[in-house]
């Protein structure tokens, strides 16, 4: 049965408009993005199949162009649209952080970092640079690979902080293993960076570990 034959309050688009976006399932949200199904399948049926093949909505969003283009009902145009939607969301969150105090928007910081890091297959170390009012003025991926005190160089971090004329920073890195717990190396590295930045009067506000959908805060754990 085509979606247009469904009761009005069960159609994804109408349901969103009447009940709000939170009322929709992942498949219903994806169906709105797809707009149409394929022969023998409605957009919702197709969305369910795509989610089953990929394992999750986040995995679909992070899939490569080749993987997406091989999926039924997708292709390069849909891949481009999907990447555009993801980038719009990231930029909107980053814009929110650049216009307000990051300490007053902890959920926005977490959401931005989760979107940026959660599905990467390798470890990366990211720095958010903040001004004196704790507004984000820039972000950079500074290191990639296995992160230890010997592979993340404090002098390079200090150099980039001075380049941005930042008054504070937030560190973040991901654990592709999916385990958000900080290692001893993570804690040692954080303290080394904090000490190096204290010499140039720059505050370390937090260090986040992103693992899958989980985000751990060093500040909340009392590790700073």
Key traits:
alpha+beta; elongated; 224 residues; 5-stranded mixed beta sheet
Task: Report on this structure.
The chain has 224 residues and is α+β, with helices and mostly antiparallel strands. A hairpin with a 2-residue loop joins strand 4 and strand 5. It is elongated and about 65 Å long.
- What share of residues are in beta strands? 15-25%
What is the H/E order?
HHHHHHHEEHEHEEH
- How many distinct beta strands? 5
As laid out across the biggest beta sheet, the strand order is: 2-1-3-4-5
Instruction: Let me know the largest β-sheet.
Output: 5 strands, mixed
Give the N-to-C terminal Cα separation. Answer: 57 Å
Question: Structural class given helices, strands, pairing?
Answer: alpha+beta
Label the overall shape: elongated
- Overall pLDDT level: 85
Helix content: 40-55%
Q: What ranges have pLDDT less than 50 throughout 5 or more consecutive residues? A: none
How many helices? Answer: 10
Q: Over the alpha carbons, how many angstroms does the gyration radius reach?
A: 21 Å
């Amino acid at each position: 049965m085509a979606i247009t034959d469904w009761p009005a309050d069960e159609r994804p688009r109408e349901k969103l408009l009447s009940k709000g976006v939170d009322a929709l399932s992942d498949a219903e949200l994806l169906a709105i993005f797809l707009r149409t199904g394929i022969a023998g399948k409605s957009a919702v049926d197709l969305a369910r199949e795509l989610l089953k093949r990929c394992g999750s909505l986040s995995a679909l969003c992070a899939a490569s162009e080749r993987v997406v283009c091989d999926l039924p009902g997708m292709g390069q145009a849909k891949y481009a649209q999907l990447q555009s939607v993801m980038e719009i969301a990231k930029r909107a969150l980053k814009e929110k952080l650049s216009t307000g105090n990051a300490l007053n928007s902890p959920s926005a910081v977490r959401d931005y970092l989760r979107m940026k890091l959660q599905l990467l297959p390798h470890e990366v170390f990211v720095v958010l640079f903040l001004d004196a009012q704790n507004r984000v003025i820039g972000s950079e991926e500074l290191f990639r690979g296995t992160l230890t005190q010997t592979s993340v160089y404090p002098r390079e971090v200090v150099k980039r902080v001075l380049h941005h004329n930042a008054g504070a920073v937030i560190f973040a890195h991901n654990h592709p293993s999916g385990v958000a717990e900080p290692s001893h190396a993570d804690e040692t590295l954080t303290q080394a960076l904090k000490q190096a930045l204290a010499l140039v009067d720059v505050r370390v506000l937090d260090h986040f570990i992103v693992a899958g959908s989980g985000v751990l805060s060093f500040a909340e754990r009392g590790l700073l």
